[in-house]
Design brief:
8-stranded mixed β-sheet; 3-stranded antiparallel β-sheet; alpha+beta; binds 2-oxoglutaric acid; Jelly Rolls; binds fe (ii) ion
Length: about 290
Amino acid sequence: MLTTLDIIDWFQEIPNDLAQTAVQALESGQVLFLPNLNFALKKEEQNFLSPQYADTRTKNISYDINHHRLRGLVCDDEEREYFENMMARFAKQSQILIRHLLNHYAPSLLSARTSFRPVEIAGRIAPSYRKDDTRLHVDAFPANPTQGKRILRLFTNVNPVSKPRVWRLGEPFEEVAKQFHPSLKRPVFGSAYLLQALKITKARRTLYDHYMLQLHDNMKADLDYQKTVAQQQVEFPAGSSWIVYTDQVSHAAMAGQFTFEQTFYLPPEGLLEPSKSPLGVLEGMLNKDLISLF
Ligand SMILES: O=C(O)CCC(=O)C(=O)O
Ligand SMILES: [Fe+2]
């Protein structure tokens, strides 16, 4: 399930064959594991390795580099400036690495949110089962329809006392889709329009978004599935990074503290093999176009 790559530097040049392997592995549902790629914190940033800076309601601190907006951060103005520098540096380094490593995606890849996750996962109480990321799921977000765009995430564990980030990885997307196909319900007529008009969603939900959200919710709701499905525990050590299509790979975060994460979106046209993507798999299974408006 992991493809290990020996990358030690965010700015390093990547040979073409390695770039090709990386894209193929990701699109096949592998996690790219970079055991020696760390994000070095500056001296004044070491203090930020504390859960005290995270708003208790949001648990993650997020940064929008396109609009220089920080969310979920509780601190004074001076600290805010240092925080922004740190988040922006992670965002930029991630962009550079991803553009080199996933060279094939460079023309169409979009950078989205950056997050810092300073709260220990183990023992945290999620406000609802839908928000409980300790349950296996594929990513799909109620307010943020991707309209077919892929969700690609890069993580770096910066834990200062060598605590790994512990995940579970579940079955391949095709199996998840087959398993939950019978439970998928069609959307209520007019609901996508209404959700957008009421600003509950930030864009129009396509059929793709609707079915992905159902997969996400139905997986998390099924405790028997959570226990019995084929799965594997993986530990991402402190000082390592990993890259994964979180809309495709069934994953659950079980333990760990202090991780940076950068999200990218990729329009489906940018993929090497669209048929392997969640959109390709679901369109094949449901035998219809899922990204036109309904
Ligand atoms: O914080 C983590 O380790 C992963 C949580 C998760 O499910 C995600 O970011 O998609
Ligand atoms: Fe997730």
